Amino acid sequence: MAESQSHHKHRPPPCKGKLITVLSIDGGGVRGIIPGTILSFLESKLQVISYEYARIADYFDVVAGTSTGGLLATMLTAPNEKKRPLFAAQDVIDFYLENCPKIFPQGNGILSSVRNLVAAMMGPKYDGKYLHKKVKQLLKDTKLSHTLTNLIIPSFDIKLLQPVIFSSFEARLEPLKDAHVADICISTSAAPTYLPAHYFETKDDKGNTCSYDLVDGGVAANNPTLVAMSQIKKEIFLMNQDFETFRPFDYHNFIIISIGTGAAKVEKKFSAQLASKWGILQWLYNGGSTPLIDSFSHASAEIVDIHMSSIFQSLKCEKNYLRIQDETLMGQASSVDVATMENLCELLKIGNSLLQKPVSRVNLETGMFEPVEGEGTNAEALTGMAKLLSEERHRRRGTMPLS
């Protein structure tokens, strides 16, 4: 059913339909091109199935993102001057190709490697100035409460040593939590050793202030799916009317798409034999990688996927949860900051290839992420998800029967 562009200023709440829809995007620096490619494909399918001006924000009740995933999520949900999403999914890819080399300027040869080692001891590898300027230029004065759907982004307060979850749900009710999305994006992307921590304050109309001393959200939740689900559970518990038909909580009522930024599991480039000899410098810099950060970010993402998979599989609704991840990255493609045009184009190819790989799921016996027989490719699964998302949208708008 075709719809005109003017019909999309308001997205009906979940209580008008029968599903709660969630999109989650992992952290991973320049590897954000991979989920960007996946989302571009999904958006193109929504445009074919639903209407030509379809955008990701029209179909998801919650969009969550960590680090580079937080930037992606914000670009897809922040409003432009016409109150439509700032970026189409395809435009996000162009943004990464154009800006990553300036966010992560590349050096050459042995001298660059020495500089990187010194940087690991003396301060962040990059000053973040270009990223900060670009994000503020794009997002201007947009606040969290202004997003076109519910946005959830984790960060970590290095002063209080606790996670900070920025949520549109809370921002609409509490002014001190209604931060500018530019500050949130800078904070969730401030990966230790790579980019500087970010300080900012919020203020309400009574003059009260709240201060934040933040670093990368990957410190707390590199895969923010569980953070998003926890927030939705909280809203249901607090009797948020948008979710009034979803009490009691039931996982069968969810559609979740969780997109990773890739991992280098097949390389097996570290081992206990190597790591047992490492001091702090080797944990911070080893062969172009940062083993300490690689370890906690991948561990954080994996444990969330195992948790979500175990729930959906045990409840026999595993097809409601689609995790798309590539664990076969090699060499520079597995880095978070190699922003050469050669590597960025390689990441684009990896994203497109991932669409043609079979749907995979965690084997609860082994913990391994394995292809599932009979469920087709990721592209086919996303096409099926696009159909469900489109049906749910029409259901909420009263343009198809509730059945």
TrEMBL record:
Active site per UniProt: S67 (nucleophile), D216 (proton acceptor)
Keywords associated with the record: Hydrolase, Lipid degradation, Lipid metabolism, Plant defense
Pfam families, alphabetized: Patatin (PF01734)
Domain of life: Eukaryota
Keyword RNA-binding: no
CDD domains to which the protein is assigned, alphabetical: Pat17_isozyme_like
Keyword Lipid metabolism: yes
Gene3D superfamilies: Cytosolic phospholipase A2 catalytic domain
Catalytic activity, EC: 3.1.1.-
Motif segment (DGA/G): 216-218
Entries under SUPFAM superfamilies matching the protein: FabD/lysophospholipase-like
Span(s) of short sequence motif GXGXXG: 27-32
Gene Ontology biological process: defense response; lipid catabolic process
Top-level enzyme category: hydrolase
Annotated PNPLA domain residues: 23-229
Motif (GXSXG): 65-69
GO molecular function terms listed in the Swiss-Prot or TrEMBL record: monoacylglycerol lipase activity; phospholipase activity
Domain description: The nitrogen atoms of the two glycine residues in the GGXR motif define the oxyanion hole, and stabilize the oxyanion that forms during the nucleophilic attack by the catalytic serine during substrate cleavage.
Function, in words: Lipolytic acyl hydrolase (LAH). Possesses non-specific lipolytic acyl hydrolase (LAH) activity. Hydrolyzes phospholipids as well as galactolipids. May play a role in disease resistance.
Family: Belongs to the patatin family.
The protein's name in its UniProt record: Patatin
